[in-house]
C-alpha cells in the first residue's frame, strides 16, 4: 500500500477566487478521499431579516452573489410574490428573462475564462473576459450597474427598456455571439483543452442524481434538470430545451456552458420579439404572513429561496440554498481517484461560488 | 398580469417516522433539494424533495428541550452537508450521520451554534 499523505487545498489557492478548504488524502499522486469544509466568509445575511424589512431585503438578496446578483434578486422577489400572491405585469416578466439571461452569459464567460486560466491557457482566459466586458457595458447601459443591477423588485422590475434600446442591444448581442463562437470553438476543438478535461473528474449519471447535483454539473452527466422548465418569468412562452451532454467529465460540463451561451442569446432574441407593452411593476401593499419556497435556475444551477412571514414587515425566516452547496457532495465524488494535478480543474467545473454558499 | 406559484405539498411527520419517509421518497425517485431549519419557539425542520419538477416538503418539529433527530444519510448520502450544517449552526444532534464533521464543517471565526441554547 502506498504511503498516505494529507494535503490541504485552499482556502487560499491560485485557482480559487473564493475560499473553500479541501483536505486531500493522497496515495502517491492519486487522491483517494477529499474532505470539504466551509465557513471562511460566512456573512450572516439570512439573519439580516431581523433588521431589514421584506422590501429592503431585495437589495441584500442581490448581494448574496457578485456574479448572478440579478437572479438572486429575482428569486427573492418571486418568493415574496408567491407568498403574497402578487400579480406581476407581463412586460416585467420578459425584462426579468432578458436580464437573467444576460447574467447567465456574463457568468458563463467569466467561468470559461477562469477555467482556461485553471489549466494555463492564458490567452483564452483574456479573450473570454474581453468579450464579457462588452456584455457588462450593455448591462451598465440598461440597468446602471455592471454587476449589482439593482433592478429586481417585488412586483416587477425597477427599469424599462424602450423598443429602440431593445433593438440596439439585440444588434450588439449578435456581435458578441459571433465573438463567443471564436472562443467556444477553441474549448471544443483544441487538443490541449481536451487532454486536460476529457475523462477527468467523472460523475456518472446515477451518482449525479443520487448526490443531488444541480445546474451544468448534473446536465453534463446526461440529466435534463433545469428549473427554468417550471415556467417562471417568460420561460413558458419561449421555445427552448435544457442543454444536456453525456460525457460525464470536465469536458462535458464545459460544453454544457458553451452551448448554454447560445441558448441564452436565443432566449433574449425570442423575448425581445415577444415582449408586450405595459407597466413594469405593481405596488405592493400589506405584510407577508405565510411561507413559500421559490426555485430558480441560476448559471450554477438550482437555487431555492425559503421565506416565512409573520404579518410584520420583517420576515421570520429567510433561507437560501445555493447551487454550490448542493454541488459539494458531487465534487467530493469527482475528486476520488483523480490525479493531484487535476484537482484545480475538477474543482472549477462545478463553478464554485463560495460567497453564495456561505451567505 | 400573472403570479407564478409552484404547486408544493407539505406534510408534517414525527421525527420517529422521518427515516422511513425519506427512504420511501428515495425509492420513489425523489431528489433531495434542501434541508432548512427555523429556530423560534420550536425548531422547525423542512426537508424538500423534487421529482420531475414536482416539489414536496416533509416537516419535523423539535421542541427546544429535545434537539436531536435521526440522519437520513442512509437514504440520501448528500444530506451530510445539510445535517452537518444543522449540527454546526443550530446545535441539533443528528444521530447516525454517515459523514460526521463533529462541529467542524463550518470553520467560523465566531462561536456556534448561533441559535441560543435552550
Describe the overall structure:
The complex is a heterodimer of chains A (about 350) and B (about 120). Chain A has a single domain, classed as Cytochrome-c3 Hydrogenase, chain B, CATH 1.10.645.10. Helices cover about 45% and strands about 15% of the residues of chain A. Chain A is built from 13 helices and 8 strands. In chain A, strands 1-2-3 form a 3-stranded antiparallel sheet. Chain A has a 3-stranded antiparallel sheet with strand order 6-7-8. Chain A has a two-stranded antiparallel ribbon with strand order 4-5. In chain A, helix 3 (about 90-120) runs antiparallel to helix 9 and helix 5 (about 165-190) packs antiparallel against helix 9. The longest helix of chain A has 29 residues, at about 90-120. By secondary structure, chain B is an alpha/beta fold. Chain B has one domain: 2-Layer Sandwich (Beta Polymerase, domain 2), CATH 3.30.460. Chain B is built from 2 helices and 6 strands; from the N terminus they run βαββββαβ. The chains are: A alpha+beta (about 350), B alpha/beta (about 120). Chains A and B meet through helix 2, strand 6, strand 7, strand 8 and helix 11 of A and strand 2 and helix 2 of B.
Top keywords for this entry?
heterodimer; A: about 350 residues; alpha+beta; Cytochrome-c3 Hydrogenase, chain B; three-stranded antiparallel beta sheet; 13 helices; B: about 120 residues; alpha/beta; Beta Polymerase, domain 2; four-stranded mixed beta sheet; two-stranded parallel ribbon; about 20% helix
Amino acid at each position: 500500500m502506498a504511503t498516505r499523505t494529507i494535503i490541504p487545498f485552499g482556502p487560499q489557492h491560485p485557482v480559487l477566487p473564493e475560499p473553500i478548504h479541501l483536505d486531500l488524502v493522497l496515495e502517491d499522486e492519486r487522491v483517494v478521499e477529499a474532505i470539504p469544509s466551509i465557513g471562511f466568509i460566512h456573512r450572516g445575511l439570512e439573519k439580516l431579516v431581523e433588521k431589514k424589512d421584506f422590501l429592503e431585503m431585495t437589495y441584500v438578496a442581490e448581494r448574496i452573489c457578485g456574479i448572478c446578483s440579478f437572479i438572486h434578486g429575482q428569486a427573492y422577489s418571486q418568493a415574496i410574490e408567491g407568498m403574497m400572491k402578487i400579480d406581476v405585469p407581463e412586460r416585467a416578466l420578459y425584462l426579468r428573462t432578458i436580464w437573467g439571461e444576460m447574467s447567465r452569459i456574463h457568468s458563463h464567460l467569466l467561468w470559461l475564462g477562469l477555467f482556461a486560466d485553471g489549466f494555463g491557457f492564458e490567452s483564452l482566459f483574456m479573450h473570454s473576459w474581453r468579450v464579457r466586458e462588452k456584455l457588462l457595458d450593455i448591462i451598465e447601459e440598461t440597468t446602471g450597474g455592471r454587476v449589482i443591477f439593482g433592478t429586481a423588485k417585488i412586483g416587477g422590475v425597477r427599469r424599462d427598456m424602450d423598443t429602440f434600446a431593445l433593438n440596439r442591444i439585440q444588434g450588439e448581442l449578435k456581435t458578441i455571439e459571433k465573438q463567443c463562437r471564436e472562443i467556444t470553438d477553441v474549448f471544443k476543438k483544441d487538443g490541449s483543452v481536451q487532454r486536460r478535461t476529457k475523462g477527468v473528474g467523472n460523475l456518472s449519471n446515477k451518482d449525479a442524481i443520487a448526490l443531488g447535483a444541480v445546474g451544468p454539473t448534473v446536465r453534463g452527466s446526461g440529466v435534463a434538470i433545469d428549473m427554468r422548465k417550471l415556467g417562471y418569468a417568460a420561460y413558458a412562452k419561449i421555445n427552448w430545451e435544457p442543454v444536456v451532454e453525456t460525457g460525464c467529465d470536465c469536458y462535458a460540463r464545459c460544453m454544457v456552458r458553451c452551448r448554454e451561451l447560445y441558448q441564452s442569446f436565443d432566449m433574449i432574441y425570442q423575448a425581445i420579439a415577444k415582449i408586450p407593452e405595459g407597466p413594469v411593476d405593481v405596488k405592493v401593499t400589506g405584510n407577508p404572513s405565510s411561507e413559500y419556497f421559490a426555485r430558480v435556475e441560476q448559471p450554477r444551477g438550482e437555487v431555492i429561496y425559503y421565506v416565512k412571514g409573520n404579518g410584520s414587515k420583517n420576515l421570520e425566516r429567510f433561507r437560501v440554498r445555493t447551487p454550490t452547496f448542493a454541488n459539494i457532495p458531487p465534487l467530493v465524488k469527482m475528486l476520488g481517484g483523480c490525479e493531484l494535478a487535476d484537482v484545480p480543474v475538477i474543482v472549477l467545473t462545478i463553478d464554485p461560488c463560495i460567497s453564495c454558499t456561505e451567505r | 398580469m400573472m403570479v407564478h406559484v409552484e404547486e408544493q405539498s407539505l406534510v408534517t411527520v414525527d421525527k420517529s417516522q422521518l427515516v422511513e419517509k425519506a427512504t420511501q421518497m428515495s425509492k420513489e425517485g425523489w431528489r433531495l433539494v434542501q434541508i432548512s431549519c427555523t429556530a423560534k419557539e420550536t425548531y422547525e425542520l423542512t426537508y424538500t424533495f423534487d421529482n420531475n419538477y414536482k416539489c414536496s416538503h416533509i416537516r419535523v418539529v423539535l421542541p427546544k428541550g429535545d434537539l436531536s433527530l435521526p440522519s437520513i444519510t442512509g437514504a440520501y448520502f448528500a444530506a451530510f452537508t445539510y445535517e452537518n450544517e444543522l449540527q454546526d449552526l443550530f446545535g441539533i444532534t443528528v444521530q447516525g450521520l454517515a459523514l460526521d464533521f463533529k462541529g467542524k464543517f463550518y470553520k467560523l471565526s465566531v462561536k456556534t451554534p448561533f441559535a441560543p441554547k435552550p
